[in-house]
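Researcher: Sequence recovery benchmark, item below. Answer with residues only.
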């Protein structure tokens, strides 16, 4: 695949959802240059976000329209290699945005992946019940400090996806006996050629014990079995990034997550 195509597939995790996946309160604006969405009953910057912006002309006017769209909500703005103009990050910082995090867009050709079967005491389960979704959210709440409203919204949103008849992905939970200690999720692209690795997190106490790698291997093994060609992920710089590169992922550019409060 060409580099630009791989970058587009990395970005695809933001918008390549099942067409029937709709949930109450979601408002989305989408065209060939712009994609942004907000959730009426959530104040999480991970629910309210701009994921595509490509305007070389009338840039400041377009930025103001984006800000008006979110009104008084907290929201985030993703900036990557395909974002236009090239200096958008600096423009937004001058408008009062701050950088929350840096991610590296990574890709792995699955023909180069050798399936792993890691032997440790932790178990990784695919969500198959409402309780599993609750456990998945509980890990997110503890790690990211989600408030009650955002946690409730995350649960409803994940449960709705879980109950989707023709869903292309699922949620994973890592357990130490019966305690949920890590989570992850994945989704296959509409054409079935890419697996999006969407988030993976492990409670502080259990880090550096192979839990993250076990969550990763489960998804990559599944993708290879399903005939996928490419795995993509937005990895936190100097966090999950080194682990993924150790497992064969290649760097396709930096993505910045900015926020406006």
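Model:
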């Amino acid at each position: 695949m060409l580099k630009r195509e791989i970058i587009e597939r990395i970005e695809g995790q933001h918008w390549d959802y099942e067409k029937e996946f709709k949930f109450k309160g979601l408002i989305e604006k989408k065209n060939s240059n712009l994609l942004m969405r907000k959730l009426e009953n959530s104040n999480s910057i991970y629910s309210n976000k701009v994921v595509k912006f490509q305007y070389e002309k009338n840039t400041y006017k377009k930025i103001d329209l984006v800000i008006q769209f979110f009104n008084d909500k907290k929201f985030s703005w993703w900036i990557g290699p395909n974002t236009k103009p090239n200096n958008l990050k600096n423009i937004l910082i001058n408008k009062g945005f701050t950088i929350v995090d840096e991610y590296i867009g990574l890709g792995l050709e699955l023909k180069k992946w050798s399936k792993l079967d890691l032997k440790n005491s932790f178990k990784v389960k695919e969500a198959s019940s409402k309780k599993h979704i609750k456990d998945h959210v509980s890990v997110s709440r503890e790690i990211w400090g989600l408030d009650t409203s955002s946690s409730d919204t995350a649960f409803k949103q994940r449960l709705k996806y879980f109950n989707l008849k023709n869903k292309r992905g699922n949620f994973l939970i890592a357990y130490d006996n019966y305690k949920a200690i890590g989570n992850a999720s994945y989704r296959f692209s509409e054409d079935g050629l890419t697996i999006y690795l969407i988030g993976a997190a492990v409670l502080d106490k259990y880090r550096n014990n192979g839990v993250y790698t076990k969550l990763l291997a489960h998804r990559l093994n599944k993708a290879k079995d399903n005939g996928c060609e490419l795995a993509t992920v937005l990895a936190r710089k100097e966090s999950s990034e080194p682990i993924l590169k150790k497992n064969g992922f290649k760097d396709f550019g930096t993505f910045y997550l900015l926020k406006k409060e």
